[in-house]
Amino acid sequence: MQTRKQFLKNICTIAAGASLLPVDELAAYARPAPKKSIYFDFHCHPGWSMTERNFANNGETVQTISDMKEGHLTSGFLALVADAPLIKPGPKGIIITRKFSPGDGWTEYKRQLQRIKEVFAQVGMPFSTDLNDLSTKSRGPIGYLAVEGGDFLDDQLSRIEEAYQDGVRSIQLVHYAQNGLGDLQTAETTFNGLSSFGKDVVKKMNELGMVIDVAHASFQTAKDVANLTKSPIILSHSILQMEADRPIALRAISKEHAKFVADTGGVIGAWPSGFNKSFDEYVDNIKRLIDVVGIDHVGIGTDMSANFQPVLTNYTQYPQVAEALKAKGLTSQEVDKIMGENARVVLGKIAKSSTKK
After folding, report:
1. In what side-by-side order are the strands of the sheet with 211-213?
2. Residue 305, preceding bond cis, omega within 30 degrees?
3. Considering only CA atoms, which of 42, 32, 40 is closest in space to residue 322?
4. 106, 110, 133, 227: which is deepest, by most CB within 10 A?
């Protein structure tokens, strides 16, 4: 039997020997650092002011960026609102007040573009133009520029390339005001799906490697895009249909609608709007989406800070979404996919699919 003295002597010998091990062998004994997850938001308007119809340079914007950092947000699509001057909130939804005169949509786009770049430069949030840039190595939130609604194109295809040069990497084809690209979920049918100009836009965006967003698009418009596109598409913020009398139920999508987006290799951003009755139901609705399209085709699209009665009201809640999904039975790997890994994969595929030389 070993004496206590002999035992301690053996321990010291082992420790001394270990200290002489080569560095690469010592690394085998090192405890790996915890894996950092990607947190991505497919659709947001941080610091957006409905009264100013713009990104406001005020305490709210500064606080939003601070909340993004506290909530460990890696990145997201920061969306200009192309038809902002044409819409206003009403008692039962958005009211369309007028139409753009020729050229006004482009002027409005440039106004908002200048404003968002000024504001986020002042608060120290950088933008990226590289869809392959999304990684766990980010030191804080970075933004990708998006435009909600193709109204600013004014039926001129050349403006897509100019927007690309401005740094825009995603265009949501339609919003609330009817434009020339296709039909909306919330308006009467005009084109019976994607218009001829809309088809040209899809082809041009494929060529440039831009992200095509079919949020707000009618079933037929989204289906036309899915049938035409050569790269994956996204539906940045929606949720599966439930009762027809729920708030903003017109903005929900059917299972078939969700499936043909996923069939392109695309991702649907689960939307925490007032369509959901609570935060817990929102998490359940994320799981419903997963059940329909699979774990590789669901992400998060908050619509922050322009959402309707949101059940997720602050970026500091982002980690709570991850924890709630785990509590409902998802593995850590599955949760990582929802929170941002699926975004990293789909953005990389879209960038790679570009045919522009």
Report:
1. 40-44, 75-81, 142-148, 168-172, 211-213, 234-238, 267-270, 298-300
2. yes
3. 40
4. 106
Residue found by looking up tokens 């020729």 in the block: 102
Q: What is the pLDDT along the chain (357 residues), one digit of tens a residue?
A: 444 445 444 544 434 443 343 433 333 333 333 457 999 999 999 888 777 778 876 677 788 888 999 999 999 999 999 999 999 888 777 899 999 999 999 999 999 999 999 888 888 889 999 999 887 766 679 999 999 999 999 999 999 999 999 999 999 999 999 999 999 999 999 999 999 999 999 999 999 999 999 999 999 999 999 999 999 999 999 999 999 999 999 999 999 999 999 999 999 999 999 999 999 999 999 999 999 999 999 999 999 988 999 999 999 999 999 999 999 999 999 999 999 999 999 999 999 988 875
The whole-angstrom separation of Cα 136 and Cα 344 is 10
CB-based burial label for 104 (10 Å; 0-12, 13-18, 19+): middle
All structural domains of the chain: 39-352 (3.20.20.140)
Report pTM: 0.89
Residue at token pair 């997201």:
76
Residue given tokens 């060529």 in the structure block: 207
